[in-house]
Amino acid sequence: MVRPEGFEPTTSWSEARRSDPLSYGRIPYTILMTLTSMKQAESYLARFYDNHRTPYNLDNMRALMRFLDQPQDKFKAVHVAGTSGKSSTAYYMSALLTAAGKKTGLTVSPHIDSLTERVQINGQSLSEAEFCQALSEFLTIIEPSGIQPSWFEAVVSFAFWYFAREKVEYAAVEVGLGGLLDGTNVMSRPDKLCLLTDIGLDHTEILGMRLTDIAGQKIGIVQPGNLALTLPQADEIMAVYRAWCQQHKAKLQVIELVEQTDATLPAYQNRNWSLAREGYLHLEKRDKLRHLTRQELAAARHITVPGRMDIQKRGDKTIIMDGAHNQPKLAAFWDSFGQLYPETKPAVLLALKNGKEYEQIIPLLQPIASKVIVTGFAATQDIPLHSMDPQVLASALRQAGIKTEIIENPLEAYRALLKSDESVLVVTGSFYLLGQIRNN
């Protein structure tokens, strides 16, 4: 093993056995490398970027799961796929199961504030020390396998391994991209519950240009014996769903939207909450879980989902951060924003990932934004990512008659936003932008 700078060797494992790769100290490998900081963890994981492959397939993940003795199938899973609302639905599902007293894992993609969000137990991310220690063990275990996972495959495998080692009873697992060929889709138990959130056009360069293409990828998480829950969607999407479930001997159930009685919950979050709540009701009946009280349901409904209608106060400023990054998500965000802040024109900080169809987003900003500050970002999740050229985006906004300023450094742009005359401020366009400024 190549020893990254700053790593420290610890005790060798003298009584190693390959028979139980979930257990600490039982793999035949002489030196365990100890990561001592999140910076080191991120640096080490960066070596997996070169293993990113297109077209996607599950060969590596399946091989890695076999090497680890199938950890992904040692707990009951709730698998969440869709275009919009995956993370929120997974967070709600985790909160409901935790409220029921079940030890619950949660892994989401992307993370917002910290890589530790990728491995959560009972709604709490691992501490940095716990994350680094466990990741050190995991990386040392898989090193002798010879398998070369991508960044996402390594992180998802780590989450599965950790959940199995900690003996979680359930895990809420968010798909990274698509579904059918996503690294999470190695979970194969027939009792897997699948939640399908709203579908829209996104990642079209990978998933396809038509809604039916994208629906075919999302429904691919549904395997024989599974139940899939979804809210009503377009007829063409539902036709793809029904055909897949019939072909794969799975069941599809279309649920009803929970009546919106809480004005503080954005309308789009009510859709995600409805899906998670129906998922819990199914598990409650199937697995004889505890019936949650009205107070417990309310608490689960009001958990903080990072980067989703995230409202903060800074002095006399109200800052709303939302990672909406395509036309359907931004449309839903602005609709909910208008309900919470009627007749308010906020100053907006905006950055979009390179390749996003910005022409569809601009008309949403025209009637609402008092001004827009365009910025950029660089991020390292799964593969290195960059924002689209701020100059190009700003030019398009100005042509639409929107007052626009360019500040390419995201932290400087955020500081400028805070100095705006407007009392209500919005940061949106990308979760990766939020991750770079949210705690500053």
Summary, kept brief:
The protein is α/β, with parallel strands linked by helices. The chain has 15 helices and 18 strands.
What this model shows, in words?
The chain is 36% helix and 16% strand. The protein is of the alpha/beta class. The protein has 2 domains: 8-301, Mur-like, catalytic domain (UDP-N-acetylmuramoyl-L-alanine:D-glutamate ligase); 310-437, Alpha-Beta Complex (Protein-Tyrosine Phosphatase, Chain A). An 8-stranded mixed sheet has the order 6-5-4-7-3-8-9-10, with helices on both faces. Strands 11-12-18-13-14-17 form a 6-stranded mixed sheet, sandwiched between helices. Strands 1-2 form a two-stranded antiparallel sheet. Helix 12 links the parallel strand 13 and strand 14 (371-374). It starts with 7 loop residues before the first strand and ends with a helix.
The proportion of residues forming helix, as a percent range, comes to 25-40%
Strand content: 15-25%
- Helix count equals 15
Q: Roughly how many Å is the radius of gyration?
A: 22 Å
Give the CA-CA distance, first to last residue: 37 Å
**Low-confidence regions:** 1-31
> Helix/strand-derived class?
alpha/beta
CATH A-level architecture of the largest domain: 3-Layer(aba) Sandwich
Strand ordering within the main sheet: 6-5-4-7-3-8-9-10
How would you name the CATH homologous superfamily of the largest domain? Mur-like, catalytic domain
Any idea how many domains?
2
- Overall geometry comes to globular
Work out the oligomeric state of the chains in this entry.
single chain
CATH top level of the largest domain? Alpha Beta
